[in-house]
Amino acid sequence: MKPKITVIGSLNMDLLVKSSRFPNRGETILGESVEYFSGGKGANQAVAASRLGAEVTMIGAVGDDLYGDRLKEILKKDQVDISSIKTVGGESSGLAIILLENADNRIIVIQGANAHCTKEDIDLNQAKIRESDIILIQMEVPLETVNYAVSMAKTFNKTVILNPAPAQELSDDLLQKVDIITPNDTELRLLTNKKTEGYNFNQRIDMLLEKGVQHVVTTIGSEGSVYKAAKQELITFPAYQVPVVDTTGAGDCFNGALAFALGRGDSITDAIKLANKTAALSVSKYGAQSSMPTLDDVREFEKNLNYKK
Ligand code: ATP
Ligand code: RIB
């Protein structure tokens, strides 16, 4: 049976601007190209899970501008149930300006309609949350909505994965309701605040575990990921050796794959292994959703695995 996943999160139009280097402060430079890709952390994670074989519903919001319908249609083509994505009149869709220099990126997100994904939307879609195996959520919709959705998911005893991106401080009350949190290095630092300057991963993760999260999975880009549960040893999952063209959405790919694998019943360590492979494949292609692999792609990749030295 296909795992059922509800993603609560953002949809953005990504403007991918390539240049040979980033401009300095106050400087204007000529870029190389601009391309439009469908993105948004929520939508990217929905596509990642769906391409691997999950039955995915997305709760979110788009604007009634040029991009809104297009963002929804693209998700629909990837078999994501878009019936819980609303269109907000008089508002623009979320937009991300992505500056790409070689494989390195800098991103500014304009929240637009994503800011209108509210508690009422969670109430309206209570039945979908209740039917899901996994609830996957990020921080590009209002914090109030995140808090509300996580609380509802817990009352239905659902497994909640929180990808705390973009980084912001979170209350202990929220953290205690999260089963699995998936910060990258920057987000982990912010969540454990500056007092931990000089601390290593293990110590920072322990601080989060002490706040009541059950499992911490930290992604560390080209170094792979690490995992720790309360009172357990830290486990390291090295990255795979791949040609890197664009890392945008690598974290989203990782989260979507993690949700898929946990939803089908994998152990958390097996789920992280699959997520590491799936995300490695995604960094070899441009764009976020456009770079998400299928399960067949992952199986093919498994035949020639190569860890980073
Ligand atoms: P983004 O915000 O760009 O989506 P992120 O910062 O949330 O990314 P990362 O930690 O950069 O996430 O990457 C997520 C996962 O992607 C890593 O844990 C790893 O599995 C894979 N990955 C990222 N970069 C590389 C790379 N250069 N080579 C191999 N795998 C990679
Ligand atoms: O994680 C990558 C995503 O972050 C991009 O697709 C962009 O929309 C921003 O939300």
TrEMBL record:
GO MF: ATP binding; metal ion binding; ribokinase activity
Pathway it works in: Carbohydrate metabolism; D-ribose degradation; D-ribose 5-phosphate from beta-D-ribopyranose: step 2/2
Residue numbers binding substrate: 12-14, 40-44, 140, 252
Regulation: Activated by a monovalent cation that binds near, but not in, the active site. The most likely occupant of the site in vivo is potassium. Ion binding induces a conformational change that may alter substrate affinity.
Binding positions for ATP per the UniProt entry: 184, 219-224, 251-252, 276
Catalytic reaction(s) noted: D-ribose + ATP = D-ribose 5-phosphate + ADP + H(+)
GO biological process: D-ribose catabolic process
Subunit structure and binding partners: Homodimer.
Matches recorded under PANTHER family: RIBOKINASE, SUGAR KINASE
Protein name: Ribokinase
Gene from which this protein is expressed: rbsK
